[in-house]
C-alpha cells in the first residue's frame, strides 16, 4: 500500500521490519530538518535513496542485516523501481562517496529482498559535518544509469 506522509515522500510499505525502520528513520529525519528519502528518475527507473545515521536502527534490525550501529556510521539505502509498474528491480549496484577534500570511500552494497521489496544497503563511516558527493552506478543487463547526489552528515549526540 502507498503511504504519503504530508506530501513529503511516498514509500511502498510491505510490512517488513527494514521498511518500517526506514519509514521511522525518514520521519525522524524530517522532523529534525535533515535529509530523508529522496527519488530521482533515471531512464525507466525511479531510484529512491536515503542516507540515515545507523543509531536510528534498532539493535535487532542492525544485527539482522550485519550493520554496525555507531554515531559515526551512516546507512546508504537504495531502492530501484520500474517507473511504470512500481515493481522492485533486481540490479547490480556499485558506488563511492567522496568528501569535499577528495577522500574517496568505496560503497559495498548488500542486497536485501523482503516480500516484494528489494533494498541495497551500504555503510558509510563519516565525521561530523562532513559533506559527501555520492556516485551510485545502477546496472541491469546492458543498461547503466548513474545516480549523483550530495549530503552533509551530522553526528547525533
TrEMBL record:
Q: Which domain of life is it from?
A: Bacteria
Any Pfam family from its record, for instance, is: DUF4426
Q: Which residues form the DUF4426 domain?
A: 39-156
This chain belongs to the protein called DUF4426 domain-containing protein
Q: Which organism is it from?
A: Alteromonas profundi
